[in-house]
Amino acid sequence: MITWPVPTPDLPSGVYAPLADAAFAAAAAYGAARAQHARSELAEVVAMGADGTPTMRVDALVEGAILESVSRNRVNLLSEEVGFVDHGSAVTLVIDPMDGSANAAMGVPLSCFAGAVFQDGVASEALTVWLDTGRAWWALAGTPT
Prior knowledge:
About 35% of the residues lie in helices and about 30% in strands. The chain is of the alpha+beta class and about 140 residues long. The longest helix has 20 residues, at about 15-35. It is globular and about 40 Å long. The chain starts with 16 loop residues before the first helix and ends in a 5-residue tail after the last strand.
């Protein structure tokens, strides 16, 4: 088990609520996964992702929480693991639920949640959350960062 906690992300004000909810869900799921599973279990390949790459247990656990989030928020999702989930919304979150899965599974503090918001196919904002620190970077279309 990886015993140190995963902090709640420190998000800037103004982040689109469903994107923020997905980031909070990812962090909480990653924290729970680390507390409940050994490193070898987190690294175990449990499926093939929609992108054709192996899905580790840590990926599946984090993405499962994000799937619940997008269902609650009734937005679409395009993700590395499950592919496209259509809720009939004009808004699609494009995410990598756990960028750096191998690091995350082994407890190396080099992994993040990354997501972007697309409204009718046009990108409006992006968010990256460093999961081991909760630090976030946010970019809003048309606004210098």
